[in-house]
Amino acid sequence: MATHELIAQARANGRVALSEADGKALLREHGISVPRAAVAVDGAQAVDGRLRELRAPLVAKVMSPDILHKSDAGGVRLNLADSAAVSAAIESMRASAPIRDALVDGYLVEEMAAPGVEIVIGAIHDPSFGPILMVGLGGIFVEVLADVAFRICPISRRDAQQMLGDLQGAALLDGARGTQPVSREAIVDILLRVGGADGILSRYGDEIAEIDLNPVIASADGAVVVDARFILHTAPLAAASLVTPTRGDELPVVERFAPLFTPRNIAVIGASTTRAPLANTFIRRMQAFGFQGAIYPVHPQAETIEGLPAYPNLAALPESVDYAYIAMGARRIPPMLAAANGKVRFAHVISSGFGEVEEGRELEAELVAAAHAGGARVIGPNCMGLYSPRGKVTFSVGVPSELGSVGILSQSGGLSTDIIKRGQWRGLRFSALVSIGNCADLGPADLLEFLLADEHTKVIGLYLEEIKDGRRFFEMLRADRGNKPVVILRGGRSRQGRLAASSHTGALADETQSWQALAAQTGCVMVDTVDVLVGTLLAFQQLGVR
Fold first, then answer.
1. Which of 248, 289, 386, 500 has its CA 20 to 30 A from that of 218?
2. pLDDT tens profile 510-526
């Protein structure tokens, strides 16, 4: 039965996982070696001739969606000499409490694999990067040893070879303390058939949530998958929704973002005639920094703000503006942007009260839809602003005015200021810094694409807490092949594995693993503190990288 039929049949039966027999049929279809096997529903069926073609020694295993670890439940019997021994083993298993109380699909009877080194190969769907592949040593002890390596799919042959080299126990594969070496190429072949460009995950990653091939027995002659578990997504993953095209999206990336980093003019929303909120401060800083273009305050009643003519709404501006700085009540922003009538290219929403809080998530979606309807792309919300020496734009005070070579993207507004100040004191000079906040519309991948193409930016620093389009982000870094150093500081990291995961892979795959895989596959540098981030960027700047 073809893979899509196996998955469809499992879903039709209300299953969240393939049976082991179906999982091995899937592997067999994709050219991965599994033991010869037959399925029996009980001990009597095990002696009716169905197992006649199998060669002893044999193994019998329970197949149950209710039993995760068969060995722990007493659901595995090894070294069975003939069909009578298989029958007795099955009846013994059927009588045990964990199996008697479970939903049982049947009993898989297989030829035992020859001895070798036990490997685990697994995969899990990462919410940012999609399928990631794991290989490790240890078989049933994999969670104890935790000697594993991860890569983001699709992997290359080089990736697969490096994964094996990353294992602390890699010497066991080559023969250690008198043991026989095993075929690394056989393991690499399985890794590619699961996670390669034409592998199982590339074809069915929208259907399969987790894979656990454990153990895989590797020997000098090859590798065979002894146990297999395929866990399905609760529903097939929907294709990523397309962003509504807006003005300028068809342009090359440098031209597309030029109005952001070198704006001809700026609208400021949220300034006041009676007090000095953040928007007023932004106007003063822009004037002090030497911005030469027009600044248009927007206010429903005021005639002037900070000595500048004010306009009642965006549509009333005398010309289209490249950049809008917006710091006002969150609920007032979507209708204002929806009515912009194409007058704004980039809207930088400083205001909070959106997706960073549960009650603001719906409003954030409304914000993006409204901005697109009005012809704008959104940066933020919940951020600090833009610092672009080339465009004489700054949200921070006392910053260097000369154009440097270090480009920064930060999802933390406060940390944006910290990076500028610490970097300034230590000698960093910036090509640009963008505080990107919640990334409701434009995200790290969008702006990274610009920084990678920008002639002024030689080194890139990123502070990221989450990334929604991680697949594109990964492909972009991999395509750049380290031409520009990229240094990443991750925020909000958790080292706790998925304790309730449905597989060994899931239990071992915390969110740090995918970022470590990103670094291994793209050459970017992961750091742990702001000081190390600044120091690493400074080192690259001083080296004069090209």
1. 500
2. 678 899 999 999 999 99
